[in-house]
Amino acid sequence: MKRKQGLSRRDLMKLSGNIGLASLAVTPFGLATPAFAQDRSLVLSHFASVNPQNYARATGSLDQAFGDAAAVEFRGVKSGPDILTGMAAGAIDMGNMGSSPMIVGMAQGLPISMIYVHKIIRESEALIVREGAGIDSLEDLRGRKVGTPFNTSVHFAVLAALDSVGLSTSDVELVNLRPDAIVAAWSQGAIDAAYIWTSVLAKLEQDGGQTIFTTGDLAKDGVLLLDGFAVRNRFKEENPDLVLTCLRELARIDARFGAAPDEVAQTMTDFLQIDRALVQRFIDTTHTLTPEEQASKEWMGLPGDTDTGIQQALQKQAQFMLDTNQIMQMPDLTQYIDSSFIAQMLES
User: Fold this and answer.
1) pTM of the full predicted structure?
2) Which backbone phi and psi does 228 adopt, to 5 degrees?
3) Cα-trace Rg, the chain
4) If you placed Cys at 167, which of 18, 28, 171, 193 could pair as Cys (CB 3.0 to 4.6 Å)?
5) What is the rounded CA–CA span in Å between residue 206 and residue 25?
6) DSSP string for residues in 51-62
7) Which CATH superfamily is domain 125-221 in?
């Protein structure tokens, strides 16, 4: 099988010194690729949550969709920067990540493309505060310690939330913590609040936490956050049929989430071995778009469309990230958004 091609070792070292890909030196991705019986394969990343990738893992549906044409390998990750690292190394071909780390990768010139909207982020990511901490509003965060994983969608959201009430990072002590470390810091009383996603929110709620702000609340200021599927450019150029097959199956699973939530909930409960109520919460807070919806200019649009909703949303987010030093240069987002696969999904 052909070796997967990514960035050169020099490129990896250069990226590791930049803010967006600081984790390159520590995340466990190598340049080698697994051997499969098939000549081709797709390495698809996934988070440890209720999502289409894990449903495909549980049911084997993506293997069935590929048939004998290719093999699929699922690669577990913990954050968007992990995916960027894997893509830079050629060890991950495709995966979903928040718009914030995706913009970081684009600003660093990583050869990737956003090809599909995975979900719109609303109540699935939120600010939760410790019971009795005296924090009832965003303004009350002044002088407090807030845990969040940096260079992720929640990192961007907490900065945007602070900005909406006139606070900055000099007013609040933001602590860079991975999700599992947030739970530990919370139990030790080391942080007053956390901006994080569903799986951790549920644990902190059990420990007395109260949610006072969600990412969906940013919409009133015209801020839209999303998870998007990104793919390595070289992979999509060499294997466009695999990318299309994968997206079609993920869209089918999205529809299944809406049409048969009980079946999906039971499948995910059994497969992930987590509480059924938490599974249902994931399902209830997952807001997806059909390929037909994504094809409209309100969202991704079709090839040749300009000034689409997604372009506007990412441009606004990128400008904020530039102003707050999360990225060092503004990327030309039109080079990184590819709606051609959506157009092909509508053809049949």
Assistant:
1) 0.81
2) -125, 150
3) 20
4) 171
5) 35
6) SHHHHHHHHTHH
7) Periplasmic binding protein-like II (3.40.190.10)
